[in-house]
Amino acid sequence: MNYLAFFHSTGTPVNIQLKYSSKLTDDSPTFYRDCQVPQCHYETLQIHVNTTDLYVLWSENNINAYGYIYKNDFNPLKPSKNLLLSHGGECNDEQLKLIFNLEINTRYILVVTTHNPKTTGNFSIFISGPNNISLSPFSPEQSSCVIGDQCNFYIKGIGLTLDDILRDELQPNIVLNNQSFSIKLGAGLTIIMFVAGLINSVLSLITFQHKNSQQVGCGTYLLVSSITSLLAISMFIIKFWFVVLTHINVSTSVSALRGGCIFIEPILKLFLYLDGWLNACVAVERAILIFKGVNFDKKKSKSIARRTILILPFCIFGTLIHELVFRRLFEYETAPRATDTNITNENTNNRYVSCITRYSPSVQDYNTAVLFFHLVGPFIVNLCSALFIIFGGAQQRSVARTNQNFKKHVQEQFNEHKQLIISPVVLLVLSIPRLIISLLPGCVKTSKNLWLYLGAYFISFTPSMLIFLIFVFPSELYMKAFKQSFNRIRRRTPT
User: Which residues form a coiled coil (predicted)?
Assistant: First the structure.
């Protein structure tokens, strides 16, 4: 059985097998010693022995050293885990001294730190015992999955958020003009995207408010989609600036941070998903039009469209309700930078607040399924509807025009309706970055390839700016309606 105890003898142990000298500096890592004393510099060393036996370790130092022995591993975020014993120099002239059994083929970690925060200086370690004792540097694993401070941290799960992408790039209490070029460029791009989205929505509204565009339900879907796309791009710019400004201004009230954390992202997703499903509804109605032909009921189509538009937002929001429950703020403060008691905590502590989601494994699986459903679902509906239009239309033509074979009719239908296949493919490709970002592990170090992740995040919002190009520009009917509405507005505008 291992014997672990403090060695309080005043005499110096004999049979010294190892002497190790080093120095704690301002560049040495720090941790919360015992989760009570912050900002203690430390050094970690792995002890190697070839014989299972009793060993004695002691120090000579002027830094009031504190020593810990860990078995198998040392995690500075959890200083009590794997701890075997410790000694802080009590009853030994502030020199740490330990006696313990070490076993071969077992990893032991020695952590040398200080009793007080921010203490630096030289120290020497002596070990007595059997022969063949050695020490080697040991580096605890530092995971980028962790946000927070030692003893008060949160381990990120699956998915990167805009907070994760920008967190390391934003500098608190620094005005925007003095932030990095990446932040300023990102801010400029959000404004450009908002202007482009605004132009897209205005042109689409001009088109679909025309009575010729609303003869069937498709026009109603696209009219509402013009509005939701503008709302989506508006929420995107709100999200970006909320993250930037709240990280820069660390004095932002907790209530404002909590409200933004809980509501902005779900509302943004609501408009994005609603936009995608409205486009899918357009594809379904076009397929039904081909299927029914002259029997297509335009009045019923418009009635179904109105009911669908009323019900669809509630259905989508129902799949996102879990985000309101599991979204919360994670707040922590850095340790004081000095031990001067005359400096108040307000001046020495830096407060950090992050928006996190604490999902259980089952809720995480559900969240991933919802993500796939809302991103891939509209694409599948669009693609299947487009294929039905092409092959269904070819089948109808082959019955009426028997002088051509079915393959020829399919080719003609594809040439006539190829935009119906190209459009959903383009929308899916542009949405894939959002899917990838949402499935990436939270441990990804975004600062190394900031624009790879930030660019992918921006690209995923471009479908909300393309309604006019995808649905209006290729359609003779909608372009005619747009020109008529635009000319009517010009005539009304005083010169």
Answer: none
Alpha-carbon distances of 265 from 238, 291, 470, rounded to whole Å: 10, 39, 26
The model's pTM is 0.70
Q: Do 158 and 135 belong together in one domain?
A: no
Boundaries of domain holding 118: 4-142
Q: Which of 472, 280, 480 is nearest to 381 (CA)?
A: 280
d(C-alpha 311, C-alpha 361), whole Å: 30
Other C-beta atoms within 10 Å of 19: how many? 11
pLDDT range class, residue 344, cuts 50, 70, 90: very low
DSSP 3-state assignment of 116?
coil
How many domains does the chain contain in total? Answer: 2
DSSP3 helix / strand / coil % (the chain, rounded to 5): 55, 20, 25
**348 shares a domain with 309:** yes
